[in-house]
Each structure stands twice: as structure tokens, then as C-alpha cells.
Amino acid sequence: MSGPLPTPRPMHRSTDDLNGQFWEHCARGALYFQCCLDCETWRHMPRYMCAQCGSANWEWRQSSGKGRIFSWIITHQAMHPKFRDETPYAALVVEMDEGVRFVSRPLGIANEDLEIDMPVQVVFETIEEGFALPLFRRA
Ligand SMILES: [Zn+2]
Questions:
Q1: What is the percent of the chain where pLDDT is above 70?
Q2: How far is residue 41 CA from its own chain's centroid?
Q3: Could you tell me the residue ranges of all domains in the chain?
Q4: Ligand 1 centroid – CA 43 distance (Å)
């Protein structure tokens, strides 16, 4: 008999088509957000209508992948056993150049080096076949 199975990393599972499309772009190493075709407002999280003008006309547009750190928190208590060895870790809010804010994690930036308005660039970490996580490194 072997020991208990290791706890798998929690993974995103698409709950609807829009979220699925967002993650399909990430799996191909590209960050896409929705943009309203009537008022040109970018948006995230994915949704069917524009919060700015109410339009249902939109398309996916590729993000520059560039933004600045808007805020962050340091997590000291892992909310899942898989992350226990990674604490304390930072959860970032990045304000993208397109204007949307995006929650992610830093890659290669020590917690004590984080700064408001630090320029950052998206980078994709492949977690498993068909799934990549958008993270942010210093630009
Ligand atoms: Zn709009």
C-alpha cells in the first residue's frame, strides 16, 4: 500500500462559455479581454453585457500584457494544502494598460520588493496540458 495521495493543486474549471474562452486564450499564451464594440470599454471578468453602456456587442481583444501593480496582499495562511509551502505569498491586483484590473501573482518579485505602480508584464506558467496561469514579472 502506498501512502495518501498528494493533494492536487486546485485548478480553474470553466463555469460558462465566456470564462472558458478566457482560459483558452491563456492556454495559448495570450491574454485577451473583452472590449465593448459600442463604447470601446475593456472589461474583466468576462460577462455578456457592458457595464458602461449596457451593450451586448463585444469582441475579444489581445491585451498588451502590460500593467502596473495597483495593490497587493500578503497571504500568510494557505487556504489550500497545496499552497502551504508557498506562504507567505503575494496576491496582486494589476491595473492593465487597457484599464481593467486583474488579480494574479508575481513571478520572480520578492514580497518585500513589491511597489505600487511597479510596471509589470504578463508571463504564462503552464500548470498542466491545456492550462496556463497568467502571472506577472517586473517589466
Ligand atoms: Zn459599452
A1: 92
A2: 19
A3: 17-138
A4: 9
